[in-house]
Amino acid sequence: xxxxxxxxFFPVGKAEGEILGIQGLPIAAIPHPMxxxxxxxxxxxxEGALPEIIHIxxxxxxxxxxxxxxxxxxxxxxxxxxxxxxxKDGISIAAEEKRIKAPDSLDAVNRIFYDHGLTDGLPIIxxxxxxxxxxxxxxxxxxxxxxxxxxxKDGEATVEKxxxxxxxxxxxxxxxxxxxxxxxxxxxxRFNLNAxxxxxxxxxxxIFINGPLSDALDLNYSYNAMxxxxxxxxxxxxxIRLLLINVGGASPGELDRATLGSPAKYTFCFAENxxxxxxxxxxxxxxxxxxxxxxxxxxxxxxxxVNDHGGKSAEEVLITIAGxxxxxxxxxxxxxxxxxxxxxxxxxxxxxxxxxxxxxxxxFLYEHARLPLSGISNGNKKQFKKNxxxxxxxxxxxxxxxxxxDPDEFMIVVAGGKGRHSVIIPTFGGHTRAVTVAxxxxxxxxxxxxxxx
Length: 453
Description:
It is a single chain. The protein is of the alpha/beta class. Among the domains are: about 70 residues, no CATH class; about 190 residues, no CATH class. About 35% of the residues lie in helices and about 15% in strands. The chain has 17 helices and 16 strands. The strands form six sheets. Strands 8-7-9-16 form a four-stranded mixed sheet. It has a four-stranded mixed sheet with strand order 10-15-11-14. α1 links the parallel β1 and β2. The N and C termini lie far apart (about 55 Å). About 5% of the residues have low confidence.
């Protein structure tokens, strides 16, 4: 069997081979991109690749592994040095276990970590043994407990490694249980983290928090909930990003292949404004008790504002939201999925005042958040029909394409402060599904907050 991929994704293919235990996976690289090439162009590329494919199919495996062991594609930047976490006194949080001492200097530690690609580009708190031990002591987990493996490198996310990344991000010890819960959620198969880590799409892992811990940890769910200014929101989201880099191996330009990326990839974490939510909280809708705190991970784009200062009824506000959702450039329009609608409290109040339940909101958006097929370019229509025939085959230009397959796939939550604004958050599409887990202690029991920060 021969493996074929475009040169832009060659590093990802090599990494996948290593994860499967195949050192020197033979890959025939073809020019990127292949999308929308003519049949004649594809034929030329296929003819050019054929000799290498034949060589791979007819050569002894050991010889091939030797030939391809150190192969890189010349159009790619040479990968950075092997990722090893550098500590003042030696704890490793990357996939490798080698411990290296770093100078006792904040500037020097930050320079070394940055040079080795172990940060998100911002300064970090040096994760010394003392700091990491203090982080773990609060939640009383065993440092060696394996929470799971983080793709695409499949690094082992132990409690110690999660705590070290949380330390680097600036988390308080009280936040560690939330970070662990987020890690537990994002490694679930239905979340499809491997695809999120390596895609060209600007998707990030959104951390959404419900329950009593939101207040106990002083997380922001009101004014500027998705922006700067709150320690918990900023550092919990950032800890997950560092974990994705240092344990998952998704470094920009190497295994993280995002074409443009997004500021949301630094950190994207906020809580639900349950106090001003006229309906049941999101986690209750998902089957959890209101007294339980939960973390939901979502494969999301950055937020897009919905400005409606004129709408005086539920229908008027929801028409504006529906129109904002139905755009031809999102993954949701051709892959479905679970787009998120974050209603500001004022919009939520208007909608609930007019007797709309959350189920009614979803049904309204299902009917109105649709795009006429004529609003999609001919090239994309052809591509969409090929990749998702069940969704697009048989449709005429006058037909309107729904954003989701089922109204219940819309995620409706409430957050923010005063003001006639809401937010839509497109997702990675049907490739990923949001996962909600309870924030628990080491025994699996839900954490009931007994402290305030």
